[in-house]
């Protein structure tokens, strides 16, 4: 029996050693619970009477409950690799987790608490996470990675808009704030995907990584940033021509797709963790292109939002969480049984919830049911394989 004590700088509790551990685990679990509540709602059963009502709660919590937790878990883990400095761990990390949990509980069960207090608890999470990341990046002057800090702060601004929309009865603030959040997380997917997808692919295939084309990189990143800027302007009530928004989104979609095509995704069909990343990145382009078409009157924007949110964001998060959880717990990076099925179900949910629903609106109820069930099964597969590894020490004895 090994009775050796952990190193003094290593938290005794493995779950508190790096941000990916608690946040990936809790985000996956929370997304399943939130989807169960949403499923019950569509069947006429009210399991919760949350702050803002169930429609607001569903939108908000999938973005700032599930989505923000995954983003923070990934960035506060990656920043340790980027800077070479110890990221948040131990009691401070558990405090950040407790703040996230407090927001989830109080929004689900308001208990008569004043609106300003509920909003304050929820709004504090992203700025605190941004502060942690900024301190590490600034300490080593790694300016390239400082860009993630304003993205997190802008996400907090979108969160504020959704809370103010509830407090002031402004439906447009809720809607535009949610749209801004989806687009900001999509920007993160483009930024991070551009770094890790070609790298992971080249390592797995044993092939040289395609050299980036500077003009294509600038066009891709510049156009997705422009999409966010225009949405930010809309959030503040200023008029932006729908045609202008649509053109910028189409440019972003096209540039992102050309960028993806250069990463040789067709060579990854044998490895779900890789084709999952490639296909989810493709759905970012699909979602932006559908959004542009919706702005021009082809169908409801909500359909495009779900293509981006499920097929792009939710699927890429699932694939990234699976890969990071293996790598940072010292395990062999491979697709575990059912992993490909889970990713396939996520993409099926995206297709059902967007293009299929646009073509066959008369089967809306069935599509909602299936897409919710597919999401739940996909993330339950993740929880089945990764709950214990995330709660245990690395198998190779290293930190993390």
From TrEMBL:
<feature type="transmembrane region" description="Helical">
    <location>
        <begin position="62"/>
        <end position="79"/>
    </location>
</feature>
<feature type="transmembrane region" description="Helical">
    <location>
        <begin position="219"/>
        <end position="236"/>
    </location>
</feature>
<protein>
    <submittedName>
        <fullName>NnrS family protein</fullName>
    </submittedName>
</protein>
<feature type="transmembrane region" description="Helical">
    <location>
        <begin position="303"/>
        <end position="326"/>
    </location>
</feature>
<feature type="transmembrane region" description="Helical">
    <location>
        <begin position="366"/>
        <end position="388"/>
    </location>
</feature>
<keyword id="KW-0472">Membrane</keyword>
<feature type="transmembrane region" description="Helical">
    <location>
        <begin position="115"/>
        <end position="134"/>
    </location>
</feature>
<feature type="transmembrane region" description="Helical">
    <location>
        <begin position="178"/>
        <end position="198"/>
    </location>
</feature>
<feature type="transmembrane region" description="Helical">
    <location>
        <begin position="338"/>
        <end position="360"/>
    </location>
</feature>
<dbReference type="Pfam" id="PF05940">
    <property type="entry name" value="NnrS"/>
</dbReference>
<feature type="transmembrane region" description="Helical">
    <location>
        <begin position="91"/>
        <end position="109"/>
    </location>
</feature>
<feature type="transmembrane region" description="Helical">
    <location>
        <begin position="20"/>
        <end position="42"/>
    </location>
</feature>
<dbReference type="InterPro" id="IPR010266">
    <property type="entry name" value="NnrS"/>
</dbReference>
<keyword id="KW-1133">Transmembrane helix</keyword>
<feature type="transmembrane region" description="Helical">
    <location>
        <begin position="146"/>
        <end position="166"/>
    </location>
</feature>
<keyword id="KW-0812">Transmembrane</keyword>
<feature type="transmembrane region" description="Helical">
    <location>
        <begin position="242"/>
        <end position="261"/>
    </location>
</feature>
<feature type="transmembrane region" description="Helical">
    <location>
        <begin position="273"/>
        <end position="297"/>
    </location>
</feature>
